[in-house]
Amino acid sequence: MVITKLTQGKKNKNRANVYLDGQYSFSISLDNLVSFSLKIGDTISEEKISEIKNVEGYLRAYDRALTFISYRKRSEKEVKDKLKSLEFEEDVVEKTMDRLKKNSFIDDVDFTLSWIINRNRLKPTSRKILFTELYQKGIEKSIIENELAGISNEEEVENAKKIVAKKIISLKNDPEKIKKYLYSKGFSWDMIKKVVNDKEE
């Protein structure tokens, strides 16, 4: 196959369209166009086309991943699931994940700590609920437990009190209703008793 035409992309000026034997074949970034030394008149093999598409796929995956994590921090599983949903090849996904981790764009320990801090600042909850949320996001059990250990029993009680304060009208300040509500939110009976007793004093 021979490269018969090269045109600049209409929507993205940083890309070029490659025509083989008079027919459009694929698009490529201008950087890779130079890197692969492609020019009109060159003969190109199927193997070379496959290599180019693999490199281009990796660059697209990396770009999509950066866009995905630009809105908020993401866990490794969230990013990987996103790339798979966009139907990138498995080897492209793995290569992208390795680069993201190497550049510290994704870090499950940092993500876990950030999640705990923001969750308890915006919408306080129990350690049990936090564990479930983080586990569902693919965080390793050991990482979750290690970061949750930073929440003291006193902080857990304060979180429970904040939750009750927001529901005090619907709970009618009824100790039994408060107990059941806090239990449904994942607080231990020891924590619940402490909250109820403090309210009654």
Overall pLDDT: 89
The end-to-end span amounts to 86 Å
Shape annotation: rod-shaped
**Beta-strand fraction estimate:** 5-15%
- Class based on secondary structure composition and strand pairing: mainly alpha
Largest sheet: number of strands, sense, barrel closure: 3 strands, antiparallel
Low-confidence stretches: none
Radius of gyration over C-alpha positions, nearest whole angstrom: 27 Å
Walk across the major sheet and give the strand order: 1-2-3
Topology:
Blueprint: E1 3-8, E2 15-20, E3 23-29, H1 30-35, H2 46-70, H3 76-85, H4 90-102, H5 108-122, H6 127-136, H7 141-148, H8 153-171, H9 175-184, H10 189-200
Antiparallel strand pairs: 1-2, 2-3
Helix pairs in contact: 2-4, 3-4, 5-7, 6-7, 8-9, 8-10, 9-10
Notes on the structure:
This protein is mainly alpha-helical and 201 residues long. It has 3 domains: 1-44, Arc Repressor Mutant, subunit A (Orthogonal Bundle); 47-106, Winged helix-like DNA-binding domain superfamily/Winged helix DNA-binding domain (Arc Repressor Mutant, subunit A, Orthogonal Bundle), CATH 1.10.10; 108-200, no CATH class. Helix content is 64%, strand content 9%. Strands 1-2-3 form a 3-stranded antiparallel sheet. The longest helix is centred in the first third of the chain and has 25 residues, at 46-70. The model has no long low-confidence stretch (mean pLDDT 89).
